[in-house]
Amino acid sequence: MNKKNIFKIVLDIVMIALFITFFNKNLISFQFHIKSGMIFGALILVHIIVNRKWVVNITKRIFDKNLKARTRISYIISACLFILVFTILASGILMMKADNYDRVMFWKMLHIGASYLSIALIGLHLGLYWNFVSNFFKKMFNIKNSGTMSIIIARIVVVAILVLGTYNLHTQGYFTKVNNTLSYAAQHIVPQDIEAPEGGGHYKKESLSFLQLINVYGSMMGVFTIGTYYVDSAIKKNKKTAKNNKMKQAS
């Protein structure tokens, strides 16, 4: 098995697990939250270095009309995700250094909003590369053919993730949180003379265990991953069918 692919998969798993812990800043301790953020930033750089050939090649060809739309979309999603991660890390640092309520809340809302939006983009990114992940684990566990039982189990798992993830998207008010936090940040880019309201007025987060974090945020990420995978598969299937039809007509 390709050692580079093993490294990529392990790196991605570690990054996703670490990212999920960010949604409870006191999961272990606040110091862990800060240090793990720095580690996550370093892992992002490692991820880019490992995939540098693809990054450099597509960057040079991003405006090439012959570049496949799927590749361009994948590149744009990856670039946006990189910007969001940088925003999360930078806003976290600036929030701690802010010396008044207005700036604390501006950086805090940007920090939270970027974190929530990243859930969707990570899901989209995973969905586009799910065939790579799936094939990797098939080779690892020597799964040559998918039998009827394994297909049924896989479908049950997919449905379970979709149901749980959709439920959590609704109960967590995911889209509302993304909209409210980023809207607040956009409206307060210019510093304003705002005093802290009584009671603090802080944006509260639930204190969840690691397993609960996986259940909530992992399942939400799973909805975007599964949705992207099936849309991508349908597009590929339609293109293949259209190509075969053209070949039949030409013959």
Radius of gyration: 21 Å
Number of strand elements: 0
Percentage of β-strand residues? under 5%
Number of helices: 9
Runs in which pLDDT lies below 50 for 5 or more consecutive residues are none
The N- and C-terminal alpha carbons lie at a distance of: 41 Å
Provide a quick synopsis of the model:
By secondary structure, the protein is an all-alpha fold.
Can you describe what's shown?
It is a single chain. The protein has 251 residues and is an all-alpha fold. Helix content is 78%, strand content 0%. It contains nine helices and no strands. It has helices at residues 3-21, 30-50, 52-61, 69-97, 101-128, 130-140, 148-171, 174-187, 210-250. α4 runs antiparallel to α5 (101-128) and α5 crosses α9 (210-250). It is globular, with a radius of gyration of 21 Å. The mean pLDDT is 90.
Note the topology.
Layout: H1 3-21, H2 30-50, H3 52-61, H4 69-97, H5 101-128, H6 130-140, H7 148-171, H8 174-187, H9 210-250
Helix pairs in contact: 1-2, 2-4, 4-5, 5-8, 5-9, 7-9
List keywords for this structure.
251 residues, 9 helices, mainly alpha, globular, single chain
